[in-house]
Each structure stands twice: as C-alpha cells, then as structure tokens.
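Input chain follows. Return structure tokens only.
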Amino acid sequence: MSENLSLKAYVVLMKAYKSIEERIKKDISSHGMRTSDFAILEALYHKGRQTIRQISEAVLINTGSITYVIDKLENKDLLERSNCKDDRRVVYIQLTDQGRQLMEDIFPKHQKVIEDLFVGISDEEKKTMIHVLKTVGKKSEEQ
C-alpha cells in the first residue's frame, strides 16, 4: 500500500501545531496572561484603535467572549473604550499608556520565542511553508 502523503502532512501539521501552541501558551503565561488577553493586546498594539468586531475577526475569538476579556483588561487599566462620534453604536478599543508600555516590554520577548522556533529554517523554506498553509487553508474554506 502506498503512503498517503495528504494524511501524513495533516498528522505532521497537527502535531506541530499542538507543540507550538503549548510553547506559545507557556511563554504568554510566563507574563501572567492568558492567550486571549495577549491576543487582544497584541492586535491593538500592532493595529491601533479597533472596534470589538475588528478585534474579534483579528484574534478569532467570538464577540460574546471578547467582551468579557476586554472588560477584564479594561479593569486592569490596559485598554480603554471610546465612542465613535459618527455612530453611537460603534465603540473603539485602544491601549492605555500602561497597556502600550506592557506590550513594548513583552512583545519583543514573545517574538524572540517565535523566532527561536524557526531557527535553522531558511527564509525560502518559510516562504514555501506560508504559501502551502495559505493554499490548504483556502481549500478548506471553500469546501
């Protein structure tokens, strides 16, 4: 029987994902945060002021759960809400000075952890990996 490369690729991808996810969770928890907290702060750190919907789409957390996390981060003075002047239904979320300072401290360390995961992998291999994973993701969404 011949080797099913699609199945093998899937299994390897899932094992790699689990391993990477555990490493990232460990890094984030070392800063006293949960993954959802960090994801929201990171999105605001890199994209600036966002609506709850924009944050939800960026970090793949549903809007019901995201409101709870935002409330907790707001209570810690890491982010703040502001109303849209043109549409009262829209509320923007942005980092406070304290939140920005925290991310300026944490994010470079987090980025280093990610970079260490890819040590020994050439830029060309990374580009190929990105291309292949995007292709598989798009095919999955189409089906």
